[in-house]
From TrEMBL:
It is an enzyme of class 1 (oxidoreductase). This is Bifunctional 3-phenylpropionate/cinnamic acid dioxygenase ferredoxin subunit. GO terms for molecular function: 2 iron, 2 sulfur cluster binding; 3-phenylpropionate dioxygenase activity; metal ion binding; monooxygenase activity. Residues 4-99 form the Rieske domain. PROSITE patterns: RIESKE. It comes from Streptomyces boluensis. InterPro entries: Rieske_2Fe-2S (IPR017941), Rieske_2Fe-2S_sf (IPR036922). Its EC number is 1.14.12.19. The lineage of its organism: Bacteria, Bacillati, Actinomycetota, Actinomycetes, Kitasatosporales. Pfam families: Rieske. The keyword Metal-binding applies. Keywords: 2Fe-2S, Dioxygenase, Iron, Iron-sulfur, Metal-binding, Oxidoreductase.
Length: 105
């Protein structure tokens, strides 16, 4: 798994998603409840950026239709989304936030 620096930890505001692109993959990086999560930035229901939504209780909400996704698992909490979105491993090294979107072979 290749981890790549996406931002500084100090750049992340609590419960405020930050959109980054990693190897052509849009990723929303979120610091909430003392942890940092990385989730695919595109809603599985519609082609909408999740990083424009709100974060609460370790969930990120799609601003367009209101589906929320668990930042830990990517699973939707209810309709209209029925499919999860990918989540990615995160490592913190000092002030660096590293994310891997590479699948292990």
């Amino acid at each position: 798994m290749a981890f790549v620096k996406v931002c500084a930890l100090s750049e992340l505001e609590e419960d405020t998603p930050k959109r980054v692109e990693l190897d052509g993959t849009p990723v929303s990086v979120v610091k909430t409840e003392g942890e940092v999560y990385a989730i695919n930035d595109i809603c599985s229901h519609a082609n909408v950026s999740l990083s424009e939504g709100e974060v609460e209780d370790c969930m990120i909400e799609c601003w367009l239709h209101g589906s929320s996704f668990d930042l830990r698992t990517g699973k939707p909490s209810g309709l209209p989304a029925t499919r999860p979105v990918p989540v990615y491993p995160v490592q913190i090294e000092g002030d660096d936030v590293l994310v891997s979107v590479t699948q292990e072979s």
